[in-house]
Specification:
- The longest helix is centred in the middle third of the chain and has 28 residues, at 68-95.
- It contains seven helices and no strands.
- With 163 residues, it is mainly α.
- The two termini are 25 Å apart.
Length: 163
């Protein structure tokens, strides 16, 4: 794919992806399907970890991207996830859930891999990572929208149409 393809992908994603998301955080299958009493708490933790990862990756995109569209998308991800993280902090406090203080190993590996790239190579890799993560996020938020916890259900349902 040439840079034009990465720019087109960036514009397409920017037009259809709004967050919060659980990028970089993967709930276990049992918890993600709401079959565990811990499912709502796990969703909150995963969404917060993913949000932290998106902020860091968005900042990286602002620095390493070649395309203005990818830089803009990175800024949007940083800004949107920073706001969403505040909402998740409020929900976590209400539910007495301790949030992670940093990104998980998968998100760190993605960050480390992307941090070695610049320009068009970064643009392609970053946008592909965002596309993959957000496809997963839609599934996670769909499951959370059916949660037995009305507060988690409300946050997920509110966010899902934007995802």
């Amino acid at each position: 794919m040439r840079i034009h393809g990465a720019t087109t992908l960036a514009v397409a994603l920017a037009a259809c992806l709004v967050v919060p998301a659980t990028s970089g955080a993967r709930a276990n299958t049992k918890a993600a399907h709401g079959k565990s009493a811990r499912a709502p708490q796990q969703f909150i933790k995963n969404a917060a970890a993913g949000g932290m990862a998106e902020v860091k990756l968005g900042e990286l995109a602002e620095q390493n991207a070649q395309s203005d569209a990818v830089k803009s998308f990175g800024k949007r991800m940083r800004d949107d996830h920073s706001k969403a993280n505040l909402e998740l902090e409020d929900l976590a406090a209400k539910k007495d859930v301790t949030l992670p203080t940093g990104v998980d190993a998968q998100a760190k590996a993605t960050y480390d891999r992307l941090s070695k790239l610049k320009g068009a190579d970064f643009d392609r890799a970053y946008m592909n990572a965002m596309l993959q993560d957000h496809r997963h996020d839609v599934a996670e938020f769909q499951r959370a929208a059916k949660s037995s916890d009305p507060d988690v259900q409300a946050v997920a349902s509110k966010t899902l149409p934007a995802l």
